[in-house]
Amino acid sequence: MKEFDIIVIGKGLVGSAAAKYLSFTNKRIAVIGPDEPSDYDKATVFASHYDQARVQRLIGKDKVWTRLNLDSVKQYYTIQEQSGIHFHNPVGCLYVNPAGRDEYLNKAAYLASQFNLDYTAYANGKELAADFNDYHFPESAQGLSEHSPSGLINPRLLLKAQLAIFEQHKGTNFKDTIIDITHHKRGYIVTSQEGHTYQAPKILLAAGSFVNFHNLAAQKLALQVKNEIILLAKVTPEQASELAKLPSLLYEIDNTITEGIYLIQPVQYPDGHYYIKMGCNLPEDIYFDRIEQVQDWFKKGNSDQFIHRLKQALLKILPHIEPLEYLTKRCIINRSVHGRPYIGETNQPGLYVASGCNGYSAMCSDAIGGVAAHLISHRKLPEHYSEKDFEIFYHQE
Hints:
This protein folds into two domains: 2-51 and 156-221 and 337-390, FAD/NAD(P)-binding domain (3-Layer(bba) Sandwich); 69-151 and 224-335, 2-Layer Sandwich (D-Amino Acid Oxidase, Chain A, domain 2), CATH 3.30.9. It contains nine helices and 22 strands. Strands 6, 7, 8, 15, 16, 17, 18, 19 and 20 form a nine-stranded mixed sheet that branches. Helix 1 packs parallel to helix 5 (155-168). The mean pLDDT is 96. The longest helix is centred in the first third of the chain and has 21 residues, at 63-83. The protein is globular. By secondary structure, the protein is of the alpha/beta class. The protein starts with a strand and ends in a 19-residue tail after the last helix. It has helices at residues 13-25, 63-83, 103-115, 125-131, 155-168, 237-242, 291-300, 307-317, 361-378; strands at 2-3, 6-9, 29-32, 54-56, 88-89, 93-97, 120-122, 142-146, 151-153, 172-174, 178-184, 187-192, 197-200, 202-205, 224-235, 248-254, 259-268, 274-281, 287-288, 325-335, 342-345, 351-355. A hairpin with a 5-residue loop joins strand 21 and strand 22. It comes from Pedobacter cryoconitis.
C-alpha cells in the first residue's frame, strides 16, 4: 500500500489544479484518476474536459464566480511559462441576450466596478453588428463584450500544463480509477478498480460529475447531473483563419427548443481538422441518477438526432459560414443547490470535496482547485472567500 500526506481523487481540471497547489507546500501528494479513454467502450468514468475549446470570461453570475474567473486568469501566464504549454487564447468574450436586458446584464456594471474590469455595452442589434459583423443578432438584442484576457482556453492542454507543474514539484500521478474510500484510524484507504490501495490522512474528492458514484463519500452531495450535447461544425483552414479573431459567444436564447447557447471560433482538433464548437441546453436533456446511465450516455447516446436542430441554430448566429460536416460530442455537467461549487470538509473529518461546478469550471478551475488546496493546507479559505460561498449541501433521501 502506497502512503501519502494528501490524495486528490479525480484528475480533471479542478483535481489537477488542486494537486498542483498542494504540491507547492506538501511533500507527499498524489493525484489519482484515469487519463482520457482511447476506447469509450472500455471506460468506467468520463469527463467533459476531453475537448479543445472552452469559453473564458471574467464577469460571472455573481461576485464569487467573478473572483474565481479573475483569480484563474491571473495565473495563466505563470502556468504557461512554468509548463511550456500554451492553452489560452484571449480573443475576447461576447455575451448577448436576443430578447434584451436580463439579470446578468443588469448586474454587470456593479460586478465590473467591484473588480475594476472593463467591458463594452451594446444597446441593440445594430450596435452589435457594427463591431461583430460575422455574428447575426436580432435588433432587440443587448449585450456586452469583454476583451483580453477573456476568450477561450484549451481544456486538454490546461490539464496537461497543471499536471506538468505538479510533477515538477515531485507530485505522484496515478492512472487508476478509485471506486472505494474507507475511513480508518490513520485516515483513509482508497481502493482502485485496478486493485491497488493507497492511504492518506487527508483526501480531496474532485471527481466531477462522478463524485456521487461508486463508494466515494458516505453521504452523497445534492447535485443534479445532466447530459450536454456539443455540435462541431468542420470548416476549412481558410475559413478558420478568416474567423481567427471571432470572440467567444454566450448567447442567452430560450426559444423552447434551445437554451443557453455557447459558441467558440474554429480551433484545431486532434484529427487535424478545424471545428466551430457550439453547445446548449435542450428540452430533451437527460438527468442521471446512476453511473450506468452516464456510461450508457457516453458510450452510445443518440446525440446525432439533434444535429439538424443545432445546425439551424448555429447558422442563424453565423449565417455566412459553410461547414463541410457536422458532428456531435456527448458531455456531462452537474448543478449544485446554490449555483456555486461545493468546496469544503465533509462530515467525515479529513475528507474534503471540490465539486458541483455548474458547467462553469473550465474557465475558473485553477482558482477552484486553489481554494480547495488552501483550505486543506491552512484550515481556512483564502482571503475574500467565505464558507457560505461554497457551502456543501447533501442529498436528502
